[in-house]
Amino acid sequence: MNKTIGLFAHVDAGKTTFAEQILYNTKSIRTIGRVDHKDSFLDSNSIEKERGITVFSDQAVFQYNFSTYYLIDTPGHMDFSSEMERAIEILDYAILIISAADGIQSQTEIVWQLLRSHNIPTFFFINKMDREGANIQTVIKDIKSNLTEDICFISKPIKKKKFDRKIAEFIAERNDALVEKYIEEDYEDDIWLNSFMKMIVDNKVFPCMSGSALQNIGIDSFLENLDQLTFTRYNDEDKLSGFVYKIRHDEQRNKLAYIKILSGTLKIREEIAPSTEKISEMRIYNGMKFKNVDRAAAGQLIAVKGMPSAYIGCGIGNFKGNIRYKMIPTLRSKVLFDESLNSRDVLKYFNILEEEDPSLKVIWNEKLQEMQITIMGIIQIQVLKEFVHERFDMDVDFGPCEILYKETIMSSSYGCGHFEPLRHYAEVYLKLEPGQRNAGITFKSQCNVDTLGINYQKLIQKHIYEREHHGILTGSPVTDLNITLVDGRSHIKHTCGGDFREATFRAIRQGLENAQNILLEPFYRFNIKANVDYMGRILSDIQRLNGVFETPGISGNTVIIEGRGPVAALMNYSLELTSFTKGKGKISMVFDGYDICHNGEEIVKKIGYNKNSDIEYTSSSVFCSKGQPFLVEGKDVERYMHCLK
């Protein structure tokens, strides 16, 4: 049985040490590495060793009883949350490690919410129980208060027969079908274990165990219970289905596509639909080492060569899923490099990095010869600087972090686009309407196929989605639009490739100019915990920072405040909170989508975008009269449109 298990934790909870003990106890490694000794098995990159943090999601493979486990060690720092989330997609189960010394911390709550949103069955391991003052009941109470009431503490290995009475009571409270068996004290039946396993996989209960990874306490018991309580049902007999979850390049810069096989089998030199590319090599990685295989089956994680067009999130074979990530960068930074460096080489290297981490979104401005990337935070920039030097022998720096704004419209409008230089022809007439917040761009067509062929209508749809469109206020990406194709025209002789791209882009831009536009900014949802004495100060701060909050909850001497506010205002508040609460206050923040910018006019003025100078995003259309093309400005295009006459 193939099982993929992911490790998650706040920084310094002991996640990497836990992974080392798991691998050592299953005889996958001969010696136990340590973060402080810079020799841990999965933190193999030199930057990870030096900084003592996990930056990349790497895997190890171990055998236990009759199962093969793929163990994924994920980053614990918020700045690398996008890397962590990509790992979540491939998991069968997750292990969330909590330090008994520190309890629930900000990143713990963010990880928990991500695991819940992806419906990943989760086990808890309360670590560092060897620390002075560690109290298991205190941590369990903390979990129940902040994460879930459905935590089931297991103090010893689960037995198939003579099922533990306390666990049976816990299950019976959540399963009406087992109440009678519990009353009759019938604990001999396999139904208890099977029901427990089913409730775990359905995210109805969450097993919890404890120990000390550093002292190898509780690891054997945890492994035994993990193996007993988990199962997968991958089918080798079905049609091939899977998806690419990671892209890397080996030391020879060969592109490797990491695939999770969901069903069927994959063989060497097999042609993979839908790209029809042929696999030339298949590898199973265990840390930095790998072994070549000729065949891989459902439930396995493999890295393949021979898929140059692969990208993170793309499906293979019969895959029908739709992978969407929630951890989205809210900041951007300019890449600074010496003039002696070839800008094309710099762009090439950063495009490689973007292929491996799509959240970077490399943006190149040809006119200014300037590059920007989107990022999660300051630590990511520091690591990226070191990584670029190590990998490409190139020194770069980064400008100040800036908020990544977006734009949308508040009123409906129509957009006209016409492209008719000599021997070309395409016309597009669109309706633009405000969309649901954070829904992105949607498209539909009400154009008659007798007026414009279905192939051209699909081409227009493709061009709408093929790139981000600049807004007219700041040049930021446009979002939350409902676009309808109302009408269009083609020419049986002159319409050719690229004509509808030009007409579509011009129609969108012209439609934006006809609408009421508004600036959007990213928001955080926050959870603040502090001594009740600080409640007044915190509530005042939230209002000062243009945030909103719900009615505070008070538990003993602790106040819990939840709300949301602009990233621009809240991004540095954790330092302020730590300062005036003398380190006792905690705040967790998670991206909560985009909303109307609290200081939009100020930002528009500060950015100083000139929509008429952005020549790649023009609203002007090209018409032709008596064999001579001529340009019509956006404000006048409607009078010239053929479909409106």
TrEMBL record:
GO terms for molecular function: GTP binding; GTPase activity. Residues 1-234 form the Tr-type G domain. InterPro entries: EF-G-like_DII, EFG_III/V, EFG_V-like, P-loop_NTPase, Ribosomal_Su5_D2-typ_SF, Ribsml_uS5_D2-typ_fold_subgr, Small_GTP-bd, T_Tr_GTP-bd_dom. It holds the Pfam family GTP_EFTU. The keyword Phosphoprotein does not apply. GO terms for biological process: response to antibiotic; ribosome disassembly; translation. It comes from the Bacteria. Keywords: Antibiotic resistance, GTP-binding, Nucleotide-binding, Protein biosynthesis. Abolishes the inhibitory effect of tetracyclin on protein synthesis by a non-covalent modification of the ribosomes. PANTHER family: RIBOSOME-RELEASING FACTOR 2, MITOCHONDRIAL, TRANSLATION ELONGATION FACTOR G-RELATED. This is Ribosome protection-type tetracycline resistance related proteins, group 2. It comes from Clostridium tyrobutyricum DIVETGP. The lineage of its organism: Bacteria, Bacillati, Bacillota, Clostridia, Eubacteriales.
